[in-house]
Design goal:
Blueprint lengths: L2 H19 L4 H25 L5
Helix pairs in contact: 1-2
């Protein structure tokens, strides 16, 4: 597992706990999850685009 994936999962898990505990609203949770997943996907695309291919 990559550090990007672990960070995304930790972000979603902590946001889930905060919703469960009543510290954040549903709309905030939705924004956090969208940002975490989008950030993970963007980081993967950026990593694939910058990796040097060896012949």
């Amino acid at each position: 597992m990559s550090r990007k994936f672990i960070l995304a999962i930790a972000t979603v898990a902590s946001a889930s706990w905060l919703v469960y505990a009543g510290h954040i609203a549903d709309g905030v949770y939705s924004a956090v999850v969208i940002a975490a997943v989008s950030g993970y996907m963007a980081a993967n695309v950026a990593q694939k685009a910058t990796v040097k291919e060896t012949p």
